[in-house]
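FIELD: query
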Amino acid sequence: MADVVEIVCYPIKGCAGTSMSDALLTPAGLTHDRSFMVISEDGVYRTQRRHPRLALIRPTVSADGSRLTLDATDAPGRYGTVHLNITTSAPRRDVDLFGAAFQGIDQGDEAAAWLSEVLSTPSRLVRVPPEHDRVADGLTPGPSGYADSSAVHLLSRPSLALLNRRMAERGSPPLPMNRFRPNIVVDSGPRQGLDRDCGDWAAVPHAEDRTRRIRIGGAELGYAKLAVRCAVTLVDQEAGARQGPEPLRTLAGYRRAASGGVVFGAKFSVVRPGKLSVGDGVVVREWGVAEL
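FIELD: result
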């Protein structure tokens, strides 16, 4: 059986994540996950693909959901911290996410000025409106905020260990898990609930590719698709800058999907909301055939 070993929430798309010991999984993913997005002045989304310094911004949302703190004390320069009141009542504005039209609630001039200075380009911050009705596609479609696609990204430590071994064979140093920005990280647990096909499934690299329904704590997830990787994986999340061709160079040699693209990890939709915690067992209720 697998255990949850890390839970990470990313309140602002493209910005740094916050590790959590427990969290509530809502129909659209972890509470507040990718519920904010940095955009250009004309409403187009910003990501680390073109703005790697987003990784240096650490957002946190207050327990009651009313305040947002943005911290960039680790970024070069004296940007410090800004505290903002989250608004859900401001007029909606059009935003563009991968060419699709959505709505966002602008979070005001103070947030815009601070982000523009940190990123060195005019930027604004928007929040998902309550009426946001985006449904991400996949084998199990489901609601999603401003995530690239499905609400939850799950990755196992054995998958990363295999990648790092393959990179070592090419003379490349290992990469940390945060290069892939997962929401849920799993690893082998101490229990002996063995699947007849996979054995201790979390000990098998890329076993997450074959899961179709999983239960964690009080929540249940349905497999949507493999996670197609992009240039964000080239960004050192601590430095906020691109650092060479890995891991895409190595992944391209053994993780090309039949439908195209380099894949690593899996995306899930929330079938049943509920609480999950680090240490929870991950029970696979249904297996399938990997799409690789």
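FIELD: remark
The CA atoms of residues 185 and 284 lie 15 Å apart.
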